[in-house]
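tl;dr need the bound structure. longer version: we got a ligand (magnesium ion) that a collaborator sent over and nobodys looked at where it sits. i said id run it. heres the input, straight from their email, havent touched it
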Amino acid sequence: MKVLKFGGSSLATPGRIRGVAEIVLGEKRAKPLVVVVSAFQGVTNQLLECASLAARSDPNYMAAFKKIVRRHRSAIDDLVGTRRAASIRAQVEALLAELREVLHGIQLLGHSPPRALDLVASFGERLSAVIVAAHLNRFHRATFVDARQCIVTDNQFTSANVIFGRTNRAIRRFFADLFGAGRPIAVVTGFIGSTSDGQTTTIGRNGSDYTAAIVGAALLADIIEIWTDVDGVLSADPNVVPSAFVLPRITYEEAMELSYFGAKVLHPGAIAPAVAKGIPLLVKNTFRPHAPGTLISRSAKNGDHLAKGITSIAGLTLLTLRGLSMVGVPGTAERLFRALASRGVNVILISQASSEHTICFAIRDADAAAAIATVRQEFRLELHHKLTSLDEKPNQTIIAVVGDQMKGHPGVSGKMFGSLGRHNINISAIAQGASERNISCVVDTAQQSRALNIIHGAFFERRKRLALFVIGTGNIGGALLRQLHEQRPYLFSRGFDVTVIGVANSKRFLLDGGGIKLERWREKLAASRRRMDARALAREIAKLELTDAAIVDCTAADSIVRAYPEFVRANLHIITPNKRANVLPWRQYVALMDLLRQRQPSVEQRPSDDLVDGVVTADIFAHIEQRSASVEQRGRMKASGAVDPRSENENARTDLA
Ligand code: ADP
Ligand code: ASP
Ligand code: MG
């Protein structure tokens, strides 16, 4: 038997639901099929928003409710054949009426306790499963199954714990009866369960994956398939790291680490039931059903990469308990974590210095107030006598590198922390699990996207990437753009992926983080409506959060040189034949060099294979120079994070066209 789970992204529109039906009906039905569905995309959030509006007696709650009503009614019109439409419509209308009653109750109460939130959220999956079952029924017998009939949980509403003994027995009994009488396709509601006294619960956001694994494990399925909107588990979140790629095979442990540390593609709870019964999980793309997907199983042959994936969790606060009173005093950590556990605070990462002088731990922002109050209470004496202090750092993100093969390979953490250091990203805490399968560090959330891309580049990307913004389009700039265009394939073959993300002259600029097509840059620049202002440009480039980028200042303009500090703060290297920076007043020159040293440690470093830094950039330019039959500008461009005072730039002309 087989379990197929379809997430909200696969059920966003009637068109997508038809695609889901095609996949389900395309399965060989020699064995029983269980289909687990989430709510239609976005509906759980809309339901919870409705509940919160109702609790505040906000009149908009009825409008929000009606939107949900319209969406489900129109799905029935679209998907359910006329023969059964009346009975399905009646079933859906009954659910919608019940939902309206619950929301009304919340409004009267002026409060939406977790128990009520779970009841409200449950309608998303109940409505979706009824409609998907009705649609499948047009082609093959299909039955709606309300998971509350067999998934038994405790009463920790909004993230209830499954009581496995009772749940497994109930599932086996239920499906034995169902499949005993013919072989319908069972369409089961994901995400929801019920306490033993019949109250509706949910098993945590994104929990339908978990439902699929619970049902699959109880029924000893051959495979549990998670159908979603990406080609499988990727080496990083594709929304943040464009170069992320699909991992064909990973182990249960790797999947657990990746999902626990933020890879939303799979709920972390989904792994344990599958491991317990040795059932493989397959993550597949509903929109590209022929793509092979990612197989998650006991063993996974590794490619040549040490790491498998990189993930992150934002929205954290880092708390550091610090003080001499902790040195050599047994039981401090025990007191700290027992106190936190007693308040239900989930600690996500812990790091303790070997001197035992500090214990540093990360918690979710939502838990910060409770955690601080708890620690202050527990350590009130030490804090009172100023023997101990508690520091708080909000807006933090954990970045985790995961992979079974990292174990016993020296240099993995060096690669991770070295690449962050070279890009001037400060690390607030570090933790490595004893399994060596996960190395985590904490950085400012503002650096999350850059940090992920930098580490991904360091571990997985063979080509060195470089994004260039060319300022000045006269002889030098024009020739450079032509050479970059002509020699892109050559540079690519030499392992350099160089894109031009922008061009500016004295009047206007063009900027596109994805790269500008260089065939017609002159026309595009002439048509651009964006007025050139070097400082504003630096701010715009900073927003792109590029990892390896440089401006090439092909002007002799003071205005650009004055904006160098802004460009450096936007994490850009500066490449230039412009001598103006070298004849700045001494104080400004020294300040600029200090800033470069401080922001771009690579300026001081020897070349290394795994980074794009000033030295690699120099390599690229050396290639361009060698290859160019006619180099209009013989003055050398010094490529580095620094503006080199010794550069031979006598021939640089005023090129700000
Ligand atoms: P569903 O609605 O199918 O449950 P989710 O939105 O919960 O889908 O999960 C799929 C999404 O997870 C993807 O669209 C992707 O944006 C995100 N994601 C984050 N990290 C990863 C990763 N490492 N691999 C694949 N997808 C990821
Ligand atoms: N619908 C639920 C949610 O949005 C469960 C799921 O999608 O898996 O969290
Ligand atoms: Mg999901």
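gonna send this back to them w/ a short note. DSSP finds 22 helices and 23 strands in the chain.
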